Amino acid sequence: MAASLRKFRAPSAADWDTVYREGLPPWEMGIPSPALEEFLKRELIRKGSVLELGCGTGADAVLLAQKKFDVTAIDFAPTAIERARTRAQRAGARLCLVLEDVFLYNYKGATFDLVYDCGFYQYVRLWELSRLLDLLWRVTKPGSYYLSVSYCGTEEFPGLTSVTEDNIRWELGRLFELKELSTFRFYSPLQRKEIDGISALLYRPEPKRTEKQ
Question: Which CATH number fits domain 31-203: 3.30.70.1050, 1.10.10.10, 3.40.630.30, 3.40.50.150?
Answer without folding.
Answer: 3.40.50.150
